[in-house]
Amino acid sequence: MMAKNGELDMVISVSYSSKREDYLLYTDAQREFAKSGKMHDEYLWISEYVFFCRKVFAEKIKFESYGQLKADGYKVGTIREYTYNPEFIDAGFPPIVASDISTGFRMLKEGKIDLLPCDRAVGLATAKLMGLKDDVAFLPKVMFSKPYLMPFCKKSPRPDKEELMRNIYAALAELRKSGEYDKLRRRHVE
């Protein structure tokens, strides 16, 4: 709502959505990714979704495909208002929905679900905050990945918002190229 009303200059950590084009500025490369899946350099970070499980089962659960997990009878939870890839949705897991990520991790710990898909960095941070770092693990195979962006708001009063947004993306691309981005990520995220 704040972005729509012009109360913000930019929004961080959102994925592209054509529904947001009315109030957020996106680059051509970001729009193209939504159609083709062709990766680009104009992003803040790459989200890698993985399945979290109880650590005691991490070695036993083999993730080869969504169909295989469903056939093996695993109870898979999801988090309300999270976006998942179409292949996961099409697998048709019985709906077990957590209201938020903390609730999802509690359900996992209590055995109400066997697997919880979420972004790896967010999941690890949540597990740490909840004191579950030693109780949960993630399966090594990445379900899917997507870039998260930091688009400027169209109603921002900044006259240079488009140029500034492009300069920030260029600086981030340079940080990734030089290796500094990975150093910062390891120090502050992983």
Element layout with pairings:
Blueprint: H1 2-5, H2 28-36, E1 45-54, H3 66-71, E2 78-79, H4 86-90, E3 97-98, H5 101-109, E4 116-119, H6 120-129, E5 136-138, E6 144-148, H7 161-178, H8 180-188
Parallel strand pairs: 2-3
Antiparallel strand pairs: 1-4, 1-5, 1-6
Q: How many H/I helical runs?
A: 8
Q: Which value, in Å, is the CA radius of gyration? A: 18 Å
In the predicted model, the low-confidence regions spanning at least 5 consecutive residues are none
Shape: globular
The percent of residues in helical segments reads: 25-40%
DSSP strand content: 5-15%
Structural class: alpha+beta
Question: What is the succession of H and E elements?
Answer: HHEHEHEHEHEEHH
How does this model look, in words?
The chain is of the alpha+beta class and 190 residues long. 37% of the residues lie in helices and 14% in strands. The protein has eight helices and six strands, in the order H-H-E-H-E-H-E-H-E-H-E-E-H-H. Strands 1, 4, 5 and 6 form a four-stranded antiparallel sheet that branches. Helix 4 links the parallel strand 2 and strand 3. The mean pLDDT is 93.
